[in-house]
Amino acid sequence: MNEARLQILNGIRRSLQRGELSGDALKAVEARLAEPPRGPAVARAALAQPDKVALFCQWAEANNATVARVAPAEVAAEVSAYLARNNLPAEAVIAPSPQLAGYDWSNQKMLSLRRGRGEGSDHVSITGAFAAIAETGTVVMASGPEHPVTLNLLPDTHIVVLRESDIVGGYEEVWERLRARYGKDRMPRTVNTITGPSRTGDIEQAMELGAHGPRRMHVLVVRE
Amino acid sequence: MESTAHDFKDNVDAALADPNLQDSLSKLKVGFSERRRQAAERLPEFEALRDRARDIKNHALANLDFYLEEFERKVTALGGHVHWAPTAEDARRIIGELCQSMGARTVAKSKSMVAEEIALNEHLEALGIAPIETDLGEYIIQLRHEPPSHIIAPAVHLTKAQVADTFLEHHSKLGFTKRLTERNDLVAEARYVLRQKFLDADVGLTGANFLVAETGSSMLVTNEGNADLSNTLPRMHIVLASIEKVIPTLEDAAVLLRVLARSATGQESSAYTTLNTGPKRPGDLDGPEHYHVVILDNGRSAVLGTEMQDMLRCIRCGACMNHCPVYGAIGGHAYGWVYPGPIGAVLTPQLIGVEEAGNLPNASTFCGRCESVCPVRIPLPSLMRHWREREFERHLTPKAVRQGLALWSFLARRPRLYHRLTGLANRMLALFGRAQGRYQTLPLAGGWTRFRDFPAPPPGGTFHAQWRGRQS
Lengths: 224, 472
Known about the structure:
By secondary structure, chain A is an alpha/beta fold. Chain A has helices at residues 2-15, 23-34, 49-62, 75-85, 98-101, 150-153, 171-182; strands at 66-70, 91-94, 112-115, 124-127, 131-133, 138-142, 157-163, 167-168, 190-194, 199-200, 208-209, 216-222. In chain A, strands 1-12-7-4-2-3 form a 6-stranded parallel beta sheet, sandwiched between helices. In chain A, strands 8-5-6-9 form a 4-stranded mixed beta sheet. In chain A, strands 10-11 form a two-stranded antiparallel sheet. By secondary structure, chain B is α/β, with parallel strands linked by helices. Chain B has 3 domains: 31-301, 3-Layer(aba) Sandwich (Rossmann fold), CATH 3.40.50; 307-393, Fumarate Reductase Iron-sulfur Protein, Chain B, domain 2 (Orthogonal Bundle), CATH 1.10.1060; 415-471, no CATH class. In chain B, 50% of the residues lie in helices and 11% in strands. A 6-stranded parallel beta sheet of chain B has the order 1-10-7-4-2-3, with helices on both faces. Strand 9 of chain A pairs antiparallel with strand 9 (272-276) of chain B, so a sheet runs across the interface.
């Protein structure tokens, strides 16, 4: 295996007509890794926070998600109402996160919640979000004990509870938040950035929703 | 996969005579390419982002050894494994052994062009392991035993009716005995059939759009979510990626993501962009226990530092083929190997030899649309011209073409003879009747006029004759 590794690396160096990087060339790439330069700024997401929230909602809806803006006390009622509006059963699997446990679910007597990972038989999941991107209406999920990845993928309907303050402009601000939270060299196992429901353009280039992941995505944007 | 690139001309004849293919291809002009134009117009920074995307890939290629080693260090530190595969055979062997180490019977596969390049499915089948394609387009063509005809829409050559027939044939034994007519019903049926296969698979195999050196992450972009199910549900996740997929940092990924989806399908963003870093962590309720990355060279390192290096910037968006008049007329299968369209015409001679694939870089009008839409600004016509030169240097060009070129160069160096002959040809064409401005048939030009009219020269003689007339 080591031989194969050297064969490839030495092949690259031979083609580039140099040895292993050293001296100033090495310092330059190390510096670039330590302080990653950003690409051209995208003006449409460089907004004040309330406008970022509005832009997120606009793009999420343009990408076939639905959005409801609610107060913290209204989260549980909106979940129940959404399920009723869409003729879905009043049961869901919910991510075992302190953020979600912090909302008052006790007044939704008909709503049955199971905490844990997603199974193939689940119809509805409820998760939080690590962040969201205003530029494209994208929610960002970081995996961990509080957020199993299967909840983002297996159920037909994915309900996302997103705090307004977690909406940022573009990807770059998400990366900064990930580094601050998990450390520069330690990403979560899985970061899913999700823009609307699952879809496919594989039959005659026409987009159809609900390929393998959720058919519906509903985002509750929570005021603070 | 076995190449038929040497039969390119026969492949083209078959493609032009295939009504289903022509029907499917007619949708390309109004599908992906029109949506790409609209997406580019909605983002004022799009051209600046393309410049940066090109620079990022050039920087990564100039320091490829460093970034690959950095990527390996980060993967290993988080409990993953990196395997190095100089050749396609090495990659097949490594992946086969990994699957066998899990006692795997089925592998959930997410669309990977590199897996097509190394003919992985055939190898797994020979080992008694069933590869299950989970991307809808790949699943359809796997059922039909066809290769992909497009790098992001592998079943783009098929009509809805053909998909319906294929599903009826293969799903009726599962109880789906009704022939479907609506796209959403076809999608729903495939979703149902494949869901159980995801849950049963022992290994998930995906490609990667990018490998991020900074974090040791593999990055995958899909619309369906099939790659995410493939890398979440099975106990082992194998990533297969070629060396040029490595990029330095997450900030670089942000730039490339902004041009990738817009160039590919005209979407602002694909539905799923996922970073995977190492195996499942302590306390995680799901995710694979084992995470392996197989890094394939297969001739790419030899392209570095040559006039052909620019081809390694490719991020596999498919824009060049969506905008190519040749691809639009003949589809992907005619190219005869894994990568079709303009990028295929450049990559294929490199990967399987110009002797086999010399026809492909000749199948271009050099109209330049491919280069004008490429998100990383690969000079595709120039690269095709390089291949033509190499083919000519190595005396691989067909005799008739060489003799024709020799005749033309003889005439081009003798202007008076040239003018006399073109003037004669002009008068000859007039004899065949130029009244309609075009010819539906023409002696010795049946290959041209069978599929389109030949434009008639305007009255008044050759350009030179007219020019002289105006000067005097």
